[in-house]
Amino acid sequence: MTEYRWLLPAVLHGDPGEGQPGVRRSTRDWAVDMFVFLGAAGTGLLMALALRSDTSTPQPILLADQVVGALACAAVWLRRRWPVGLALALLPVSLLSSVATGPVCVALFTVAVHRPLKFAALTGGLHLLTLAPYLCWRPDPELPFWVEFTVAALLYVLLVIWGMFVRARRQLVLTLRERAERAEVEAELRVERARHLERERIAREMHDVLAHRLSLLSVHAGALEYRPDMEPHDVARTAGVIRAGAHQALQDLREVIGVLRIAPEGTTPDRPQPTLADLTGLVEESRLAGMEVTLDMRVSDPAEAPARLGRNAYRITQEGLTNARKHAADAPVGVTVAGGPGDGLTVEIRNPVTVGQAIPGSGSGLIGLTERAELMGGRLDYGRGPDGRFRLRAWLPWAA
User: Fold this and answer.
1) CB atoms within 10 A of CB 221
2) Of 43, 232, 236, 295, which alpha carbon lies 20 to 30 A from 165's?
3) pLDDT score recorded for residue 20
4) What is the pLDDT confidence band of residue 170, given thresholds at 50, 70 and 90?
5) Considering the domain boundaries, does residue 315 fall inside one?
6) What is the C-alpha separation between 134 and 148, in angstroms, rounded?
7) Residue at 231 is within a domain
8) Percentage of the residues of the chain whose pLDDT score is greater than 70
9) Cα–Cα distance between 236 and 230 in angstroms, integer?
10) Residue 268 pLDDT > 90, yes or no?
């Protein structure tokens, strides 16, 4: 018995928050409760008026019927807090009082609305069992027993069905409301995720563009630092290159932020993006910065490469040259680009590993390149090869 004691509060009390201490009823709740009370009291008043014509029942019993019925009407105010408890408490009342018919109907309806079907069936069945003794004790002289019993039983059944319908409708409304709130939250999460991905995309693009430009500036600034004996015209030329590089870096930064803010993922940005054919210009730019770079282009027609493939190949090569400039500025660098439709595109960058002063780096560039290659369905690996040279190799799919 002890393991079922926890069920008693849930069975006897209403839904959480329904009439519980500390929970205020709304204006609608007060209006509904007032309407229900007046309906139960009006039904009891009609039954009390009908009792005046009952001459077969002793007056004390009729008076007790009216008093008990009035108390039952007052107890209707407790229906929200104790729906099942009220219905069970009215069981002995329904055996004695016809004035309590209204409160009994209200109690059965409330149980069907606020409690599951098994509790509504239990209380409804118990009240049906009290009909037979009551009708035998105080029968209606104008109606046969079976007709009166059938009408009362149908009334109870209809009240339970009506209450179940109201309960089902309320649950449906709550479910739809929860789904709407869940959909709103999921939409906010999708927007936040889209913003996060856009920030990552902007950061990746800014890193690819600015790291290359800033590494060039570092190389030229280093030449001024370690060659204080340079001719004045060489100093002026190097300073002009630094100024032009800084201006170009700022311009690239403005273009990247402006384009990525308005261009959704998967669309073609308005800003002209680098292609596979632009690798020659990238290599020439590195040569002007003092690097020894050789380009082995084994693609018959680089201009025919898809835009997305060319853009990613360009960014991978750009980052590879930037890393070589940071960590092996004086070493020769070899760039090999090979492949074609159906076979994919392979980009390989090789340079010796040197010991010396290097431009600091965080290592996030290689991580970003790996993500860039994987997003395209390709792969990227890097590290020191058997010959001691550092190698960065990427393979990107190229549809036939």
Assistant:
1) 15
2) 43
3) 47
4) confident
5) yes
6) 11
7) no
8) 76
9) 10
10) no
**Of 47-56, 154-163, 201-210, 269-278, which gets the smallest average pLDDT?**
47-56
Out of 142, 177, 208, a domain closes at 142
What is the value of pTM for the model shown?
0.44
Positive or negative torsion for Cα 144, 145, 147, 152: positive
**Domain-terminating residue out of 110, 126, 142:** 142
**How wide is the angle at C-alpha 166 spanned by C-alphas 161 and 172, nearest 5°?**
125
Residue 136 lies in a domain: yes
Asked if the model's pLDDT at residue 291 lies above 90, the reply is no
- Number of domains the chain contains: 2
Q: Where are the beta strands (DSSP E) in 302-384?
A: 333-340, 344-352, 379-384
Of residues 59 and 315, more confidently modeled: 315
Does residue 394 have a pLDDT over 90? yes
Burial string for 141-159 (b: 16+ CB within 10 Å, else e) reads: eeeeeeebbeebeeebeeb
* Number of C-beta neighbours around residue 107 at 10 A: 32
How far is 90 from 104, CA to CA, in rounded Å?
6
364 sits in which H/E element:
helix 364-375
* CATH number of the domain enclosing 384: 3.30.565.10
Amino acid 334: pLDDT: 92
Q: Are the C-beta atoms of 235 and 220 separated by less than 8 Å?
A: no
Listed residue (106, 93, 96) closest to 40, CA to CA: 106
Maximum distance among all alpha carbons in the chain?
Answer: 133
Q: What is the rounded distance in angstroms from the CA atom of residue 317 to the CA atom of residue 333?
A: 11
Provide the edge-to-edge strand list for the sheet that holds 389-396: 293-298, 333-340, 344-352, 389-396, 379-384
What gap in Å lies between CA 399 and CA 129, rounded to an integer? 79
The two three-digit tokens of residue 230, written as one number = 């340079």
Domain containing 321 equals: 275-400
pLDDT tens per residue across span 5-21 = 334 444 444 444 444 44
Structural contact between residues 66 and 99, judged by C-beta atoms closer than 8 angstroms: yes
* Residue whose C-alpha is closest to residue 248's, from 296, 276, 289, 201: 289
Task: Determine the pLDDT at residue 65.
Answer: 66
pLDDT in the model for residue 342: 87
The angle subtended at Cα 193 by Cα 191 and Cα 196, nearest 5°, is 110
